[in-house]
Amino acid sequence: xxxxxxxxxxxxxxxxxxxxxxxxxxxxxxxxxxxxxxxxxxxxxxxxxxxxxxxxxxxxxxxxxxxxxxxxxxxxxxxxxxxxxxxxxxxxxxxxxxxxxxxxxxxxxxxxxxxxxxxxxxxxxxxxxxxxxxxxxxxxxxxxxxxxxxxxxxxxxxxxxxxxxxxxxxxxxxxxxxxxxxxxxxxxxxxxxxxxxxxxxxxxxxxxxxxxxxxxxxxxxxxxxxxxxxxxxxxxxxxxxxxxxxxxxxxxxxxxxxxxxxxxxxxxxxxxx
Amino acid sequence: xxxxxxxxxxxxxxxxxxxxxxxxxxxxxxxxxxxxxxxxxxxxxxxxxxxxxxxxxxxxxxxxxxxxxxxxxxxxxxxxxxxxxxxxxxxxxxxxxxxxxxxxxxxxxxxxxxxxxxxxxxxxxxxxxxxxxxxxxxxxxxxxxxxxxxxxxxxxxxxxxxxxxxxxxxxxxxxxxxxxxxxxxxxxxxxxxxxxxxxxxxxxxxxxxxxxxxxxxxxxxxxxxxxxxxxxxxxxxxxxxxxxxxxx
Lengths: 273, 248
Description:
The structure holds two protein chains of two kinds.
Chain A lengths: L24 E12 L2 E12 L3 E5 L6 H8 L7 E6 L9 E4 L13 H11 L4 H15 L14 H13 L5 E5 L7 H18 L2 E5 L3 H7 L2 E5 L6 E6 L14 H19 L1
Parallel strand pairs in A: 3-7, 3-8, 5-6, 6-7
Antiparallel strand pairs in A: 1-2, 1-4, 8-9
Chain B lengths: L4 H18 L11 H12 L3 H33 L1 H16 L6 H8 L3 H25 L3 H9 L4 H12 L1 H25 L6 H10 L3 H29 L6
């Protein structure tokens, strides 16, 4: 064993100064870097996600749409970079998350109502507080099925409705939705999409939605975030401002069609690149 | 009509058995007729000496099983949730799980002597490894997404353990318990045969064989079969009741 005397001192290189996003930014992502199997998926990725808005994430296969929201939600570790919610770290932020596969997201050993109340239980809320919040949720989702059943006794759409209720139970600041409609039939997709829009209009919760259906992505969005192929960059952020509630008629509005068309063009440009 | 299907096999077996005895293919001194055997079984279990041996075997099996379950499930769940700990003892568990427990009977004889404790101890040992293995793997293979769901809702490690991992491990634990009770029964019967027992189904089977009392021997064998089958069904029913979400 030799003792190193006067070992080289490596000075802390000041990382690039933190640049806050514009006013109204909720989530600030700076210098996000993530490698997968030695290849960069994200490298020095910057993004501002606005508050009280729905942002739809859309991009080519394998560009890491889900990975992006999973990194923001803390489910996938990042290699380096900084993600702040109103200047706070994730651990000081309440978030909700809706998984694509509701079957493996709900706890089948608990009744549906207890699944929904679980985040409140974790916060140590009293029985009365939990009951009050549950009644509120049931009213705002206009639930028509029996929440005292176990999740596996419900239909897919009912289970996904319940997991959205669970994700919203403790009034999170941000709601993450990872392809929440992909495992549902068309009828249920329409129904839950409307519910989601209603809830958004009531609460204004910031939402990040990953979707593989462009129409759905635009329909729900205030902003469509289009990503490039890996290493992933922001291809374009398209604002879409049609008034809510959006309805079937929205789908034939010129503004909707224009946004969808432009999104598709950018998407195709990025896929070919 | 379909409900009769499960009975066809046993009835066929009894008919072949009966014919084999009736037509003299097998000497009655080696194989009594099914009617005689069943009569001996029913008589023996209806308050006869067979009942006492039956009860003794049940009692030993249950003791061994309870020890295995009470120690094994918590141990398995804890080992499974600390995967490094499990990896470090995995070889031992797999090795002794693969070693026929009956091969260890002489070893246990040296430790516990020719006692009742010995029979229970070795059966508990064999059953324990199965329980530990299954419970540990239940935790290790817990649905990752449920763990993630709990984590994203802000659950601490302890909350994830008690609210998700323990529950996820229930179904595989039950598979373990069911195999364990069968294993316990096998070892108890073997131990009763060869470790100076004066009671139990194993003891009864070997004693009747020694004096060529084949009717009693077959009755005891059938009784052991009934016991094993009943335990299996009991655990399946318990599993369906407790792990109600299994397979759905």
